[in-house]
Amino acid sequence: MMEHRHTGDPAGIVRFSQDGQWDRDVRRLLRRARREAVVAVGNPARSRDHPRLGQVVVDDLLTAGTEVRLLYSPGYLELRDRRPLLRYSARGARIRVSDSDFPNALIIDRAAAVLWSGAGADRPYAYLVREPALLRALHQFALLSWQAGHGWTGQLCGDAVAIGERDRAILDALNLGLVDEVAARRVGVSVRTYRRQLAESMMRLGVRSRFQVGVRAAQLGLLGGPG
Question: Which of 70, 126, 181, 202 could form an S-S bond across to 116 if both were Cys, CB 3.0 to 4.6 Å?
Answer without folding.
Answer: 126
